[in-house]
Structure formats: structure tokens, C-alpha cells
Amino acid sequence: MNEISCQPQDVIPRRRLCLAADMEQYSRLDTRSQSAVQADLVRLLDEAATMTGLDRSAWARQPQGDQEFAVLPVATPDAIVLGPFVHHLVTRLSALNARLDAPRVRLRLAVDTGVAVDAALGQAGPAPVAVARYVNAPQLRAALAALTSADLAVIVSDRLYQDVVRFGRPDLDPTQYVQAHVRVKEFGGYGWIRVPGHGPDEVRLSVDGTSGPQPASGPLAPSPATDVALSQYVHQGVAVGRDVSGGITVGLPVNLPPASSGHDR
Q: How far is residue 93's CA from residue 48's CA, in Å, rounded to a whole number?
């Protein structure tokens, strides 16, 4: 009689909100200052979360020196993070940077939503991959570098912009976001940048010339001027610390062309 082997069930993918906060010009600091601003970053995120009513102890956090990557609980409202949490983060940054004789802390914040699961060395799934790319977008770096009075520059995925920002909440104004086509390594996709305290025209001027090559025209690359909703299509990916591997294409139309019906395998 054959023995039936019981295999563990596969992990069921769940949609999670992911974010990454990265400090500008961290490498220019000396060792003591780096230690101090790392503590500042943790405290800033803790305080902003508390003021927003978010439980930081429930976040799956992955500290990375000058950056923190986090996967938030499944039930976390996207709009609360994009609205009140960002607002409170700005206020806490302003208070922190009012100190005398202390390094100024300026942050790039990237937010996306999608599949994210625990893996042996970090988080696996499309959202961790995308967030790691968005936070290093040349346009986001350019915006923070050009707008020197700003303490925070935020980029959200096209998926969050279309589903949440454009929904019509009073604390999320879609006109304050500037679209950018982000290309970082194998990643390509649309994101939307906002710099609190600065209007979209200022942001647009700061990111002009940093977009790199745009997608070729055709059925798979709608013009940014169209109202076609964009989705994120990910082949595979895993985030391990600051290293991300896997193929990802973001910004394809929702209605992808059907697969060929031949005998291809």
C-alpha cells in the first residue's frame, strides 16, 4: 500500500501595502551622525504612525541602514497611509529639522500595493520589487534635490494613484501629483510624484529631463495623456535587503492582448 505524503500547503498570496523610506545624502555623514539619523528615521516613522492611528508593531519591517522597507498589515487602509500618515510625517520632519546643530533629515518615500509574502531572506512578490525601484527613481531624487526647502518627496505607484488618489478623498488631491515614467534596472513603469509644500509645476520642472526613454507607442504603451487605467505586470521577483531580483514590467494596459492559441509551450 502506497503511503500518502502530506506536503505543506502553498502560501496564499495576499495584497499588502508596502513602503520604503530612504534618507538623502546619508553616505556623506560621519559614523556618529549616521547612527543619530538612523534613530531619527525610526522615531519619525513611529511618531507619524502613532499620530495616524497605525500600529507600527504590526508592520513587517526590514531596516537597511539609511532606509526602512515595511510591509503593512492586510487591513491597512491605503488612503490613510497616502493622506494622514504622509501629512504627519511631514510635520514630524519639520519639527526634527528645526533643531540646531543636528544633521537635516530629508526623505524619499515610495508606496505601492500588491502581492507580498514572507520569504527566507526578506519579502517576495511584485510590490516589494516595485517599491525598491520607485524609491530610487531618478525623478524622485531630482525633485528632492531641486526643491531644497522640502523635507519629503513621495512617489506612489500608478495602481495606487488610479485606485485611491483619484477616488475623490478631500485629503488626496490628484492634481498635486506629477506622472513620471520610471526606469531603474529591469524595472519600467509609471509612478506619481508629490512634494508636500510644493505645487505640481515646481515638481514638473525639477523632474524634466530625468525620465529616460519612454515606452514605444502602440497598443501596449498608451500615451500619458489618455485616461487608460494602467496595471502592473510582474514576471517574478524577490526583495532581499536592498537587493531586488526578478523581471517586472509596470504600466501596461489593464486589457492585455490574449495569449497565442497555437501549440506553443
A: 9
pLDDT band at residue 11 under the 50/70/90 scheme: low
In a domain, 260, yes or no: no
pLDDT digits (tens, 9 = 90+) for 59-73: 999 888 889 999 999
23 vs 125, which has greater pLDDT?
23
Stated as kind and residue range, the H or E segment containing 202 is: helix 200-207
Q: Does residue 151 form part of some domain?
A: yes
Phi, psi torsion values for 239, nearest 5 degrees = -110, 120
CATH code of the domain containing 21: 3.30.70.1230
> What pairs with residue 74 in β-bridges?
none
What's the full length of the chain, in residues?
265
CA-closest candidate to residue 207, choices 231, 179, 184, 232 = 179
3-state secondary structure of 106: coil
Nearest to 157 by CA among 123, 194, 111, 195: 111
Q: CA-to-CA distance for 133 and 129, rounded, in angstroms?
A: 7
Q: How many domains are contained in the chain?
A: 1
Q: What residue numbers bound the domain in which 80 lies?
A: 15-253
**pTM (two decimals):** 0.77
How many whole angstroms separate alpha carbon 92 and alpha carbon 166?
Answer: 26
